[in-house]
Amino acid sequence: MLAKKLVTAQKRGETRALCLGLGMVACSMMMYFFIGITIVPFYTKSVWTTETVCKVLKANIKDEVLCPNSKGSEDEDIFPYPCLQVWVNLTASGQEVMLYQTEDTLERNPKCSYVPDKLENSKEVKARIETIASNFKKYQTFPCYYDPGGTQTNVILSRLYPPKGLLFAFLWPTLMFTGGCLIIVLVKISQYVSVLSAWQ
Question: Which residues cross the membrane (predicted)?
């Protein structure tokens, strides 16, 4: 009687462990799919892949402009902000080009180097842009990214999804997939050992 209870408990434990492993594998595959349709296209679409050194030539704050956040955005999402324009000397080619914060900045407003997030207090937005402009004037030389193919003549300060960020995004689903497979293998080994012991 006791042996039957132990066998039943062992089978229940193996079933739960097997379900856990399969669930981890399924979740990791869903995460792979989500990363593949969201992050990977932005990474492959970016042409600013080569890092170089940029030297600030001028950083000016122009008159206020309207922020078109995205296509089809509501009127309440559009707000005015000072337009910061940063021009740099590209060390790789010696050209005078305009600097943008990220790839998204160029798409949102190609006239400005920095597009702030919407804030209720316009004074905070103005103070932040003035601080960014003073930092550019203070730190004249810094790393930036340019397009080696020449399709884009401008440069960006940082990439939205650098290679390290892409690897980090794939790290967690890979760990979950490995853990799920390991649990399934251990359960199968345990079942094989149990069957072998019973047969002997």
Answer: 20-43, 166-187
